[in-house]
Amino acid sequence: LRGVADLDVDIVHDKPVSSTRNKQVHRFLLTKRDWVLFLDSDMVPTFDAVNFLLDAAFGSCEKAVAVTGMADQLTKGGPMPVLYRFEEGGIKAHAEILGSDPSDGPFDLSGGGAGAACVAVRRPVFTRFLEAGKVWFQDVLEEDVSSPKFGTRVLGQDAWFWRTCTELGIPTFAETRAYFGHVKPCDLSQEARRIHALRLGKREGEAVA
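Structure (tokenized):
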């Protein structure tokens, strides 16, 4: 992309992720750039994924907007895009997007969210957060001392970002053509046993000799 577009590229290795993202947003707002693209190091884009994502971002809205690509996460059912809706009682898989045709292009994500591993965000989104007194990215912890989950994370920094976009009425989209694989560590011996079981026609969880 450096050869075909006027870009500033920062490669950052730091934790926690939420504070690192916030530092990068702060640095971005000190520039004259209009868009920031977050792309995590464990993302493996298909050939045209970034182009589709940027095309959707530039063509989707004239005002504040955030556009996510389709990043995978591992589930019991295999790799699934990190796309969901905020509903009473928790977060639910975004069935409308998961069942859509990948050729459909940008999909209205209003009332929903995604990961933040491959997302393009326009400058006015961050200024709207500031005007509303909202942090851009933060992990929400359980504050009820009587809860067994006290002090544990109940909402991740990426879900916080998308939920706040919804609360502030910021248009958000998922670009179904921008597909990103997600590299994750796994127990190879466990995976080998699971694959062996599948070859034998056994259900997951059954004993395999």
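The chain has a mean pLDDT of 76. Residues 17-29 form the longest helix (13 residues).
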